[in-house]
Amino acid sequence: MEEFFTSRNSFFSEDILLESLPDKLKMPQLTRYKEENDLVSHLNKYTSWMEPKDAGGAIMGRLFSLTLGDKGQRWLRMLSQRSIKIWNDLAIAFLAQFMVSQA
Length: 103
Prior knowledge:
This protein is an all-alpha fold. The chain has one domain. The chain is built from six helices and no strands. The chain has helices spanning 2-5, 14-18, 39-50, 57-64, 70-78, 87-102. Helix 4 runs parallel beside helix 6 (87-102). 18% of the residues are buried. Mean pLDDT is 82; it is low at 1-6.
């Protein structure tokens, strides 16, 4: 998995790619986001789980992909190289993409 995040073609900035994943951080047991789910609720649940664990924005960005279903995974792979510099970039891009598809 580490190789995926360090790809030269990654949508993450170099700062995010270089952030080490904490050894004891457990991923939340969230239902993977699918288009029919409430995307704001999904983001809220994810951030509510990660923030108390002192997961910084880089870690939140890197692990968010694990909460997405197939369509979300495909969308992530389509993001421009190095376009995500902070967690908020990814959260805003996610909302923009999937709010449109829910309208």
